[in-house]
Amino acid sequence: MAAVGLATVAIMTTSEPSPIGVLIVDDDPLVRAGLTMMLGGAGDIRVVAEARDGTEVASLVDRHAPGVVLMDIRMPVMDGLSATEALRARPGAPEVIVLTTFDADDHVLCALRAGAAGFLLKDTPPHEIVAAVRQVAQGHPVLSPAVIRRLITRVADSGHDRRRARARERLVHLNDRERQVAVAVGQGRSNAEIAAVLHLGLPTVKTHVSSILTKLDLNNRVQIALLAHDAGLADEE
């Protein structure tokens, strides 16, 4: 009987990992319904709330504590860019994936600078959206190095000189090796590629990336890449 009791206790204390909570922010009810239905089919993801515009995001995040926010850009009252900036400025903020219909929308690039983990086109296949939510929930951007590079090269030229001066002032805080790693990230290289180019071990590269994020108060490697580009260093060999 004692053995049975212990087995019962063991079963009762074993629990499945909590599903990834997702907040959907979009002014189109059909888009919200479609995303909710699609994500609902994944056993490890749960849509915890929906918002019609950016003004509702803060209160819903406080109430439901989602791990990931799917954020539309073009919305009335408060757009997704403003909502992303406000949300990511808060401590312990959830990760944000920007939803857009344009892969070169300048607002998307601004959202990445504000701390969004990446973006998805609204016509992205369902299985890729599900995979992106899982990836972001684990702290990894949903942009591949190739996509990062393609986006960076299409940044609008307005305010170029001002951005370059600001970016270079920030990069002064890095040591020589960290600066080399930041430049390599800006070139769209993966950690393995950086390790090969700079003749470093992969764990060392990861340590340098973490140090860069901490020193520059950045959220992810997408922001490192954008900063390196703004500073005019992405084309360095």
TrEMBL record:
Keywords for this protein: DNA-binding, Phosphoprotein, Transcription, Transcription regulation
Claim: Transcription is one of the keywords in the record: yes
Every Response regulatory domain range: 21-137
Residues with the 4-aspartylphosphate modification: D72
InterPro entries per record: CheY-like_superfamily (IPR011006), NreC/VraR/RcsB-like_REC (IPR058245), Sig_transdc_resp-reg_C-effctor (IPR016032), Sig_transdc_resp-reg_receiver (IPR001789), Tscrpt_reg_LuxR_C (IPR000792), WalR-like (IPR039420)
PANTHER family: TRANSCRIPTIONAL REGULATORY PROTEIN NARL-RELATED, TWO-COMPONENT RESPONSE REGULATOR
Protein name: Response regulator transcription factor
Source organism per UniProt: Sphaerisporangium flaviroseum
